[in-house]
Amino acid sequence: MILSMIHCIQNVGFIGLGNMGSRMANNLIKAGFNLTVHDKNNDALEMFSQMGVSTKKTPYEVSEASDVVITMLPSSAHVIDVYTGPNGLLHGGKLIRPWLLIDSSTIDPQTSRNLSATISNYILKEKKGDSERPVKLDAPVSGSIIAAEAGTLTFMVGGSEEAFLTAKPLFLSMGKSTIYCGGEGSGSAAKICNNLALAVSMLGISEALALGQSLGVSATTLTNIFNCSSARCWSSDAYNPVPGLMEGVPSSKDYNGGFASKLMAKDLNLAVESAKLAGCKYPLTSQAQKIYTELCNGGHDSKDFSCAFRHFYSGMDEPHDN
Ligand code: NAD
Fold first, then answer.
1. Is there an atom of ligand 1 within 6 Å of 147 CB?
2. Signal peptide position in this chain (predicted)?
3. N or C: at which end does the chain have fewer Cβ atoms within 10 angstroms?
């Protein structure tokens, strides 16, 4: 019998109601799931309480009310705290109610794997079919706050494939695609690789556009060329870093409202650590890490990561009709 026939995914706990999590939780509510939420920030909790959603003061209380728990937290340390800290999800001895724990935070693969191993030692309070033990999926996302709001995220999922298939309706309520990456930790690994490629492409486009401006070719002209040439990429045609060149993107909103440079710096730190552990070369990751660390230290930590164009390369704004 497959898990979906046995396991309920209707009662969903959600922990971490920040920029991404609040929007993901909203989409689950819209899709008809029965939510119980927690965040250490009372304002975030209050917002959901006013919408009639059940709120809890601790992760453990969420765990007690849910069949599935999703976490969307800033970093590995926060995830470890929510799982294993006092009144954490795993607080109740070796017994646990949720059969499935999904962590969508961007964290290092090693921590993901360690948590999966810890959880595999727990026992379900109520046996479900043949299975007695809970499972964990690492399911980080690609896509900005805009994608979280629109329900168009991409999920990269590591862990049991059977659990992944059962949880698919949850993922597809928050995203447009969901890709199974392999065993425990492989979703986290995929996410780190995606963001390392993104950081390098954003810096490459920014460096080229700033050089073009200095050589007398406008960023608008160069972008037009890139977008029908071999340099075309998401950073040139969907998320251009030059203020005034595209509407609706963070560069045209003083680099507000996107993916913060501090989050990119965090992801690059994870990529460097993973490359060291794997014995791989990482010269571009290392250089990108230095640039984003410098941007953060220079006070641009909360600005969108495309701000490298202005604040690292000193690129210039271009009027929309240039
Ligand atoms: P955020 O800082 O806006 O939200 C995190 C939330 O977690 C906050 O509400 C905070 O109060 C809560 N929190 C922190 N520690 C907690 C604890 N111990 N107990 C309960 N709640 C706790 O972060 P975000 O932008 O929503 O990002 C969340 C994750 O998603 C990160 O791992 C990030 O790298 C990843 N991500 C972000 C984006 C983006 O564009 N922002 C895109 C893709 C992936």
1. no
2. none
3. N
Give the Å distance between the CA of 105 and the centre of ligand 1. Answer: 7
Question: Is the CB of 302 inside a 6 Å radius of any atom of ligand 1?
Answer: no
The CB of 73 under 6 Å from ligand 1? The reply is yes
Task: For residue 165, give both structure tokens.
Answer: 């298939």
Dist. CA 145 → ligand 1 center (Å): 11
CATH 3.40.50.720 domain span(s) along the chain: 6-183
Angle formed by the axes of helices 261-278 and 186-214, nearest 10°:
120
Return the CATH superfamily for domain 190-311: N-(1-d-carboxylethyl)-l-norvaline Dehydrogenase; domain 2 (1.10.1040.10)
Beta bridge partners of 103: 71, 138
Q: How far does residue 191's CA lie from ligand 1's centre (Å)?
A: 15
Quickly count: other Cβ atoms within 10 Å of residue 259's Cβ.
22
- Considering the chain, tell me which residue range(s) the CATH 1.10.1040.10 domain(s) occupy: 190-311
pLDDT tens digits, one per residue of 190-230: 999 999 999 999 999 999 999 999 999 999 999 999 999 99
For the whole model, what pTM was predicted?
0.92
CATH number belonging to domain 6-183: 3.40.50.720
Residue nearest to atom 19 of ligand 1 (CA): 40
Taking only the tens place, the pLDDT of each residue in 101-151 is: 999 999 999 999 999 999 999 999 987 666 789 999 999 999 888 899 999
- CB 138, CB 157: distance < 8 Å: yes
Enclosing H/E stretch for 196 = helix 186-214
